[in-house]
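INFO  loader      accepted 1 record
INFO  loader      residues=337
INFO  predictor   begin
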Amino acid sequence: MLNFNIEKYLQVTGGAVGLREEIEKVADKVYEKGFKNIFLIGSGGAVATFYPFEYMINSTSTIPAYAEIAAEFVLQNHKQFTKDSLVILSSLSGTTEETVAAAKYCKERGATLIGLTGEYNKPLADTVDFPLVNFAENDFASDSNQLILYLLIFKLMNKNGDFPNYEAFAAQLEVLPEKLIEVKEQFESRAEAFANAYKDEKYHMVVGSGTTFGRAYSYAMCVLEEMQWIKTKSIHAAEFFHGTLELVDEDTSMILLTGEDETRPLMERVERFAEKYTKKLTILDTKDYELDGISEEFRKYLSPIVTSTQLQRLSVHLEDKRDHSLEIRRYYRTVAY
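INFO  predictor   done
INFO  writer      dumping tokens
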């Protein structure tokens, strides 16, 4: 596969899964202490990664969950946030200004904090009560964070009596990285074909729902816009028919991220519309992949990470065909703003 280091990928994902014992101890401690709700706080791609887990908690558990953008959260005076809240924050570098500020804000108000990050001895790790650290770089950070969150969130739901099959789920997460490599291999030719066909495309719509909407949001903003400078709109499938559909014509590129949770019919409705009105339709459907060894009952929860796996291959091939590095920035962390 183009620009894919399998050893590095397995090291990063293996490191995430390898935190299971530590994660479960943290879950035991915070559950024993007690909390009344969960806040998932981050910026950019980090908060986008939290959106699927907010959906999963709210559709699986009786624990109230709120995914919040860090910079807005510290200004909002959220009335559900108290000293009895459990706060999970994420910043790969551990230095994201808005996320660190949110961590300090929550700490000062007595909440319990868990931090997902790539390094110790950075502001986020130093501020939270429980840092969960797994080194990763931008290419595989999303997979690392998602694997850690699967273990943490589903253990907490298990302890709350909402997810009795946690042990089986956690065991299958250990084999998931190998299955994701198989997804990458199966998708590789499609990713290259997409990049060849759309390397000069000026505008995309990326549509998701349920557990895939966060991926639509982050891919539009953090990859196509930030890393490739392509104008892109992310849209929830349920809202597509309340405005965005009027922009579709036969030359509109639409990328549909179709998962396997309860909201799949929303994506199928958008697909039926798109098939009639655009000639530039791309569908990334998690059902296309066997994921041998993963139980059917768990597949709906894994749609975000399977979708991420496909999108990672699109990014690599777009970078290659467009001759536009995924690392170059004009403004982000380059100029003062």
